[in-house]
Structure to design on (162 residues):
C-alpha cells in the first residue's frame, strides 16, 4: 500500500452545513479507516487556537507521552487532565461528516468554515483565517531555516555532496 495512505497531508477548507456538521476530507477518512477507526479523537490544542485531531496513532502517541511520567506524579496527572479531560470522540456519519462541539469551535474560532490541515500522524482543524496566518508564519520560518542550513552546509565541507 502507498505510504501516502497512512498519513494526513495537504489542507482543505470546508464549510459547516446549516446543522453545524462538516465533512472530514475523504483522504483523512481513508487514513482513519486504515487505522481501524470510525471515530475521530479531538481536543483543543494546548498552545494554539486549533483543534488537534486524529485516530489511533494520535491516541497511542498521547498514551506514550503520558506513560513517560511516573504513576501518580503531578506531571502525569496534569498531562492526562489537559489532554484526556478536554478530549472528545466524534462519530463520523455515513456521509463522512462530524459535528464539532461548541467548545472545540470556540477554542479554534471556527464559525462557518474550517481548515483541515494534515500533519502526518495527526491533523489540525483551524478557522481558515487563523490557518492562513499560521501557514504564512511557518513558511517564513522554514525559508529562514533553509537559508541558514544552506549557509552552514556551504561552510562545512563534510556536508558537501560528492
Amino acid at each position: 500500500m502507498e505510504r501516502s495512505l497512512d498519513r494526513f497531508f495537504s489542507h482543505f477548507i470546508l464549510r459547516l452545513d446549516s446543522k453545524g456538521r462538516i465533512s472530514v476530507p475523504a483522504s483523512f477518512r481513508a487514513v482513519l479507516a486504515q487505522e481501524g477507526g470510525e471515530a475521530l479523537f479531538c481536543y483543543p490544542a494546548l498552545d494554539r487556537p486549533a483543534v488537534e485531531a486524529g485516530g489511533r496513532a494520535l491516541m497511542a502517541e498521547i498514551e506514550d507521552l503520558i506513560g513517560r511520567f511516573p504513576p501518580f506524579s503531578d506531571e502525569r496527572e496534569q498531562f492526562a487532565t489537559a489532554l484526556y479531560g478536554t478530549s472528545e470522540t466524534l462519530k463520523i456519519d455515513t456521509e463522512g461528516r462530524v459535528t464539532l462541539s461548541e467548545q472545540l469551535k470556540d477554542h479554534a474560532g471556527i464559525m462557518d468554515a474550517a481548515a483541515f490541515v494534515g500533519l502526518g500522524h495527526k491533523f489540525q482543524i483551524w478557522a481558515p483565517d487563523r490557518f492562513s496566518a499560521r501557514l504564512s508564519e511557518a513558511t517564513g520560518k522554514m525559508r529562514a531555516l533553509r537559508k541558514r542550513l544552506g549557509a552552514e552546509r556551504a561552510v562545512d565541507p563534510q556536508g558537501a555532496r560528492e
